[in-house]
Structures are given as C-alpha cells and as structure tokens.
C-alpha cells in the first residue's frame, strides 16, 4: 500500500516538474514583459529655485514635451519648404521628398547637439525606464531585441539614419513606459543607444548614448 | 482519516488532470475545436483550384524584397498559381525591401518580380517589416493609403494591417477601436513579427503578444498571418485563434524550425508562399514551394466566437 502511494506521489512530482519546464523561458519572458510596464522611476522630489517641491518624473516629461514641441516647429517649418507629401506610384518622389525634408531640417538645426531634446538634467529618467525594462528581461530576450543589427554601428544626431540598416523592433512594453511622441517622431534602439528618429525625414533627431545595458554575446 | 487506495488513486488522477490543464493554459491552450485542419487533398502535386465561387481569394507573400533569383522564381510560381487559383489580391507580411530603398530598388525588389501580377491589376496590401522604411506607406502599389497601419474590407472579411515594429499607444487605441466596430464574419490581422513561432533564430515575440493578444481575444479575431521568420509554419490554434507564419517568399532560413508544442506543420527547406480562400464559414489554405509543390494544405472552420481566453 505504502509503495503504491509513494509511487503515485513520485509520479505527481515528476509531472509537475515536467509541466514547469515546458516553455518556461517564454512564459517567464512574457511575465517579465508585463511586469516591466509596471516599473516607474521613483526619485525624491526636486526642489525648484523658488523652493517648491516638484515631482521629478512629471517635470522631466513636461520638459521633454516642451522640447518635442520646439522640434516640431522646426519640422513643420521644414515641411513647408518641400513639396507636399502625397501617395505616388513613383518611388523617386518618395526618396527625393524624404531627402529634401531631411536636408531642410538639418539646415534649420545647424548646431544640434546630443541632449537638445533628451535634456541632460532629465536623462536619468529615460535611462531608468530603459534599464528597468531590460533588467526584467531574460538574457535571450535582450539578445533577441538587438541581434538584427550589425555590431559597432555609429550614429550621429542631425544625420540620416543609415538607409541600409534595418530598424529593429522597438519593444512594445518599453514603448508603453516612455512618454508619447507625435506621429512624426519615434524612439529607436541602435546598439546601446536610444534614438529619437524623424519618421518622414529618416533623420536622427537626438540620441541618448549607452543607455541600453550591455547585451550578452 | 485514512484514505483507501482507490480514493488515493482517484485524487492523484484528478490532480494530474488539473496539472495538465494548467500547463496547457500557460502557453499552448488547444483550441476547443478544431485543432486539426481537414486536408484539402494529399499534400502532393501543384496548385489546387478554389473551392467556392464567390469566395475571397488572396495570395500571402512574406519577406520577399531581395530582388534576387529566389524572389523572382517564387514570384513566377505565384503567377503560375494564379491561372489555377485566381486570387484577387495579395497581402505582404513585411520586409518588402531589404537593404537600400532607392527608386531602382523599388523596381528590382518589387515591380519587376511581380510585374505579371501588377499587370493583371492584382492589388497589393503591404505591412511594414523591420527592414522597411515607413515612407513605403506612400507608395501607391503597396496599397497602404499613406498609413503605417490600416484596415480594409473584402466582402465579408475585414483585414487589420499592423505595424508590429512600433506598437505604440496610438496604434493600440486604433486597433481596439477598429476591432470593436467590426461586424465582419471573418476578422484577419497580419503584421511582420509572429507572436507565436517555433523559429530558432527569432521565436515568439512575447512583448508584442502581451500587447495585442488580449485585443485579439476580446474582439474574437479569427486568423493571424506573420512573417519575419524565413520559413513556413502553421501553428496549433492558440486561444482559439489560427496562426500562420509565412516569411519565406525570398529569404530562407533552412532548418530553423524547432518543431515543438506550437507546431502543427512546418516547411523550412525551400521558399514558399500561401494561397488562401475564405468561403462562407471555411478557410481553405494551400502552401506552395518555389518549385510549385504543395507542402501544406487544409480547411479550417470559422470559429464560433473567434479568439477566446
């Protein structure tokens, strides 16, 4: 009797272990992805010059949005200088319009510097969001996010995103944690850098360098 | 209180049953019905003719934009299929153009390989892959209407075309609104990155899945097509939704399918494309290789309620 009971208990234990092994990596990654969205950077309140305590996250987002608005003024001014965007059968129109818009924006931002939009004092906010997200991902997941790109790609702001490079998929859960952007702009990751890219002009607008944790080889 | 051996055995069997069910719910819940496609015909021979008369018939192309010999050979085979299975339009699962996207690339990687289809006025509806410049949306032959994500209707079928490269809140809101408003008999989504895949190189896009799958389930989506993986895979229904990966229309990642619990059928030894027919409550599909040989085919019934959680 005892032998039968022990055998059944062993059978139950083995089944449980086997079930836990099935797709555990994928399930964990999914759980991590969900959990990542719940992470919010928490800092101590900042004190303004007039002595008021402010929520630093709110202040960072507000400042970021102001800078985005300022960029959009430039973008819109540049759009006014190039032919209207329209649907066409002719790919020449698409590529020449993209180039013309990029040239116009570059001309209007001659002294653009890294940090013009990702303002230096608020960079820790973005860094924390990205790092919190990656921290909760498995090594396999992290690697999968960036393996499409060749290593050692150099990117500079106010230049065209290299047209022969794929645009790696931006992690949907990380996107949920970052401040919204107007449709003309998007976040992208290249190597360890978080970029702001102008979609219509294929232009790198700003970059936050070395923000993505090192990816295992 | 001592239990008899019979009671103990019964409890153990019950427990084992619960464990097995719990595991299935984690990842690969078998669809209530039907998990298996009914074969159209034995998987041999060439293109099969359509079953219905007034059905929705379309071609599925994935990861095609190389401009190389393989793409041209597959495209030629697609055109041959058209004489037997006259599809009305083609859906593109992304990576419509690899590498540079100069005007001559549009010609070499799209217009020339698919010239016969374009000349026959077959409409294309493209989605964006990770190799695609989003400005492709303005290229009329891609049928995107100037939008990165969009929807279109064919008879009783609504197609939802997503940009899986960048699933931001705007797109999520749009998707929920469109899905909630659709009263179509068939609801089909397609996009580049598969949320379920047995690919050894990429695998399932769990990040994307966490965002879109709840909407697919809530609004009873029927079918999902994706590319990105350079092979063909028919997956076992996931939460009562049918999934196909068909990203081998030019590039091939030979031997990359890690056949496992997700896989219903896979083909990774040559390039491939799909022909799909929606006829009443049935979805008929056939998958052909570059040589025009059928490598998978079958019929799936429309789910009574689409995706279920």
How does this model look, in words?
The complex is a heterodimer of chains A (217) and B (309). Chain A has 7 helices and 6 strands. The model of chain A is unreliable at 8-42 (pLDDT under 50). Chain A is α+β, with helices and mostly antiparallel strands and 217 residues long. Chain B has 309 residues and is an alpha/beta fold. Chain B is globular and about 40 Å long. The interface between A and B is large, with 51 and 54 residues.
Give a quick account of the main beta sheet of chain A: strands, pairing sense, barrel closure.
Answer: 4 strands, antiparallel
User: Order of SSEs of chain B, N→C?
Assistant: HEHEHHEEEHEHEEEEEEE
Give the percentage of residues in beta strands of chain B: 15-25%
Number of domains of chain A: 1
Strand content of chain A: 5-15%
- Helix share bin of chain B: 25-40%
Record the strand order, biggest sheet of chain A. 3-6-5-4
Structural class of chain A, please? alpha+beta
H/E series of chain A, N to C? Answer: HHEEHHHHEHEEE
What is the radius of gyration of chain B computed over CA atoms, rounded to a whole number of angstroms?
20 Å
Structural class, from secondary structure content of chain B? alpha/beta
Share of residues in helices of chain A: 40-55%
| Oligomeric organization of the protein chains | heterodimer
Return the average pLDDT of chain B rounded to an integer: 87
Give the beta-strand count of chain B: 13
Number of helices of chain A: 7
**How many distinct beta strands of chain A?**
6
Gap between N and C termini of chain A, in Å? 54 Å
**CA distance, first residue to last residue of chain B:** 40 Å
């Amino acid at each position: 009797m005892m032998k039968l009971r022990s055998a059944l208990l062993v059978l139950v234990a083995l089944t449980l272990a086997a079930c836990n092994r099935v797709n555990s990596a994928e399930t964990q990654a999914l759980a991590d992805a969900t959990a990542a969205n719940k992470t919010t950077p928490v800092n101590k309140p900042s004190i303004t010059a007039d002595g008021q305590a402010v929520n630093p996250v709110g202040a960072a987002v507000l400042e970021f949005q102001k800078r985005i608005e300022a960029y959009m003024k430039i973008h819109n001014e540049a759009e006014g200088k190039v032919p209207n965007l329209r649907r066409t059968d002719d790919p020449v129109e698409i590529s020449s319009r993209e180039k013309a818009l990029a040239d116009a924006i570059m001309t209007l931002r001659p002294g653009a510097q890294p940090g013009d939009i990702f303002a230096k004092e608020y960079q820790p906010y973005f860094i924390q969001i990205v790092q919190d997200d990656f921290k909760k991902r498995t090594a396999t997941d992290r690697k999968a996010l960036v393996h499409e790109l060749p290593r050692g790609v150099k990117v500079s702001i106010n230049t065209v995103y290299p047209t022969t490079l794929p645009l790696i998929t931006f992690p949907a859960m990380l996107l949920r944690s970052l401040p919204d952007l107007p449709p003309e702009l998007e976040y992208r990751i290249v190597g360890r850098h978080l970029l702001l890219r102008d979609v219509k002009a294929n232009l790198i607008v700003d970059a936050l360098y070395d923000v993505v944790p090192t990816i295992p080889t | 209180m001592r239990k008899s051996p019979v009671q103990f055995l019964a409890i153990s069997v019950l427990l084992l049953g619960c464990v097995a069910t719990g595991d299935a719910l984690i990842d690969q819940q078998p669809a209530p019905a039907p998990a298996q496609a009914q074969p159209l015909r034995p998987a041999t021979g060439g293109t099969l003719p359509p079953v219905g008369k007034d059905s929705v018939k379309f071609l599925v192309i994935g990861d095609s934009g190389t401009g190389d010999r393989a793409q041209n050979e597959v495209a030629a085979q697609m055109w041959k299929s058209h004489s037997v299975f006259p599809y009305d339009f083609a859906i593109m699962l992304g990576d419509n153009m690899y590498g540079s996207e100069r005007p001559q690339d549009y010609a070499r990687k799209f217009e020339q390989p698919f010239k016969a289809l374009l000349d026959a006025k077959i409409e294309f509806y493209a989605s964006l892959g990770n190799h695609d410049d989003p400005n492709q949306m303005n290229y009329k032959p891609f049928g995107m209407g100037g939008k990165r994500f969009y929807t279109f209707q064919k008879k009783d079928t609504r197609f939802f075309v997503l940009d899986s490269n960048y699933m931001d809140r705007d797109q999520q809101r749009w998707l929920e609104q469109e899905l909630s408003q659709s009263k179509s008999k068939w609801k089909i989504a397609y996009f580049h990155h598969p949320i379920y895949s047995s690919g050894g190189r990429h695998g399932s896009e769990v990040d994307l899945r966490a965002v879109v799958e709840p909407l697919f389930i809530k609004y009873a989506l029927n079918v999902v097509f994706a590319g990105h993986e350079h092979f063909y895979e028919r997956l076992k229904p996931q939460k009562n939704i049918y999934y196909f990966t068909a990203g081998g229309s030019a590039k091939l990642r030979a031997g990359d399918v890690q056949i496992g619990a997700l896989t219903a059928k896979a083909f990774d030894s040559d390039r491939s494309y799909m022909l799909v027919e929606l006829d009443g409550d049935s979805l008929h599909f056939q998958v052909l290789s570059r040589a025009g040989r059928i490598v998978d085919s079958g019929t799936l019934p429309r789910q009574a309620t689409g995706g279920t959680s």
